[in-house]
Amino acid sequence: MKRVLAVVLVLAAMAAAGCGVSAQESILDKEKLVIGVRTDLPSVGFRRSDGRFEGFDVDVARSLADRLGKEHTLLGVLAADREKVLRDGRADLVVATFTIDQERKRRVLFAGPYHISYQDILTRPDDTITNVRDLAGRRICEVQGANAAKRVVEERGVAARVVPFPDYKRCLAALKSRQVDAVTTNDVILAGLAGQDGSGLRLAGVQFNEQRTGVGLAKGDVPGCEAVNRAITSMYQDETMEKLLRKWFGAEWLNRGVVAVPQFEGCS
Amino acid sequence: MTVVQTPGAAPAPAAQAGGQPPQPAQAGPAAPARRRSVPGRIRVISGVTVASLALLFAALAVGSSSAREGLRVIGRDAGPQVVATAGLYLALSDMDAQVANVLVMGNGYPEQRREALARYDARRAEANRSLLEAFELSGDNPVERMTVQSVLDGLGRYERLAGQALLLDERAAHAPGPPPGEVVRTYREATDLMRMVLLPQAYNLTLESGTIVRATYDDKKFTVPLLRAAVLVAGLVALACLIWLQVFLARRFRRVFGPALVVATVTTAVALFSGLAVLDQDERALRTAKAAGFDSVLTLAKTRAISNSMQGDQSRYLLDRERADTYEHTFLDKSLSVLYYNAGNLAKYHAAVAAGSSTALGMLGPELVGRQGKEVFQTYQAFQAADADLRRLAAGGQTGKAVAARLETATTAFAGYDQALVRLSDSHWKVFESAVERGERALDNLWRLLPFAIGAIGLLVIAGVWPRLKEYR
Question: Is the ipTM of this complex over 0.85?
Answer without folding.
Answer: no
